[in-house]
């Protein structure tokens, strides 16, 4: 739909005005912006190695069915002309800071979800714009001006609907779900698109004959409790377009981690330790930029037979140096070495953060 007329909104209490901003193919778009030869090309951010995984895909690549988390070999099979680009997380984080600075021009009530998406409460926007629609349009314009990148926006009276709406006019568009249309609009959508309904739950709902929001709305609370336990209340509410959660700018990030799948199963301790150190380096780069230092270090190991284990250590003081994080991670991986069977994946995570340092990045999920 196009811009909804203001006259369609009629409630006794003024609804909140919430915008969900989602950058369009963020990592891939940054790469296409910085390398003009990639424009118009099917681009995948990630590794083309046999065990590589696509971290992000341009819209040209998506036309071939290439998506994030797809194995690289499958992606190349679907799109033989796919161009792989190694990720540059330091660049993506820098661009994300620019985007968040734009958000702050319009509202202080910002809840980032990742580097490339966030909720904004613009019920009282700092720019004095009359509608949330105009505010979303202005934000998208400023992002384009500052970064050269496009963003899509969903506008509604709650977070659940705003997030659904932001996907409705992608790329480089916006869509509004007004209070008088919310419940009816939700009824038409497949439940697999709902935030909080993952693939496993969607498959379970399919088996129960629940395919759309309308099907979900037709389920009694008793039925939902029987089949979905403590999630029943959430499903009952969203089927009616209801979500009372506020935009929460103080939601603290609980951890930061990085993992890699090796090109081949590794047995040699030196190679495995090198992989762990590389992941520790990635995590430290984020910690240092964010001014975020945690006391708990965790190493994850996945063996060739897909058995997975973790080893953790909680220290008395935060790990506040690159060398300290490396040493902690190496100590943990050495507790499972030597190994008789190959290791296909390792990961390093830091958690149990202390309050962020002044001037650091926001510690949001």
TrEMBL record:
Keywords: Cytoplasm, DNA damage, DNA repair, DNA replication, DNA-binding, DNA-directed DNA polymerase, Magnesium, Metal-binding, Mutator protein, Nucleotidyltransferase, Transferase. PROSITE patterns: UMUC. Binds 2 magnesium ions per subunit. It comes from the Bacteria. One of its GO terms (molecular function) is DNA-directed DNA polymerase activity. Mg(2+) binds at residues 22, 116. Its EC number is 2.7.7.7. The record marks 27 as: Substrate discrimination. It is an enzyme of class 2 (transferase). The active site is at residue 117. Residues 18-198 form the UmuC domain. It is found in: Cytoplasm. Poorly processive, error-prone DNA polymerase involved in untargeted mutagenesis. Copies undamaged DNA at stalled replication forks, which arise in vivo from mismatched or misaligned primer ends. These misaligned primers can be extended by PolIV. Exhibits no 3'-5' exonuclease (proofreading) activity. May be involved in translesional synthesis, in conjunction with the beta clamp from PolIII. Belongs to the DNA polymerase type-Y family. Monomer. This is DNA polymerase IV. It comes from Sphingomonas floccifaciens. The gene is dinB.
């Amino acid at each position: 739909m196009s811009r909804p007329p203001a006259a369609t909104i009629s409630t006794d209490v003024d609804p909140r005005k919430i915008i969900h901003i989602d950058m369009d193919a963020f990592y891939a778009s940054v790469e296409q912006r910085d390398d003009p030869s990639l424009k118009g090309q099917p681009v995948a951010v990630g590794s083309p190695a046999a065990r590589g995984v696509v971290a992000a895909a341009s819209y040209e690549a998506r036309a071939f069915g290439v998506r994030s988390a797809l194995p690289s070999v499958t992606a190349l099979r679907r799109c033989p002309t796919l161009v792989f680009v190694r990720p540059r997380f330091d660049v993506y984080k820098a661009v994300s800071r620019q985007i968040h600075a734009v958000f702050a021009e319009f509202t202080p009530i910002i809840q980032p979800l990742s580097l490339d998406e966030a909720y904004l409460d613009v019920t009282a926007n700092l720019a004095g714009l009359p509608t949330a629609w105009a505010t979303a349009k202005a934000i998208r314009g400023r992002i384009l001006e500052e970064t050269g990148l496009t963003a899509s926006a969903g506008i509604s009276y709650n977070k659940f609907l705003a997030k659904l709406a932001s996907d409705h006019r992608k790329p480089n568009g916006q869509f509004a779900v007004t209070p008088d249309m919310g419940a009816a609009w939700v009824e038409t959508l497949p439940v697999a698109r709902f935030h909080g309904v993952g693939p496993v739950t969607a498959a379970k709902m399919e088996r129960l004959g629940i395919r759309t929001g309308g099907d979900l709305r037709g389920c009694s609370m008793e039925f939902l409790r029987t089949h979905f336990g403590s999630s029943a209340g959430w499903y009952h509410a969203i089927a009616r377009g209801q979500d009372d959660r506020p935009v929460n700018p103080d939601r603290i990030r609980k951890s930061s981690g990085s993992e890699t799948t090796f090109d081949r199963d590794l047995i040699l301790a030196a190679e495995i330790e090198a992989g762990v150190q590389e992941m520790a380096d990635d995590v430290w780069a984020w910690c240092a930029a964010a001014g975020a230092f945690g006391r708990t270090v965790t190493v994850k190991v996945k063996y060739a037979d897909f058995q997975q284990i973790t080893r953790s250590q909680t220290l008395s003081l935060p790990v506040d140096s690159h060398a300290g994080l490396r040493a902690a991670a190496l100590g943990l991986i050495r507790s499972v070495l030597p190994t008789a069977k190959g290791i296909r994946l390792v990961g390093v995570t830091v958690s149990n953060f202390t309050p962020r340092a002044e001037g650091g990045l926001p510690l949001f999920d």
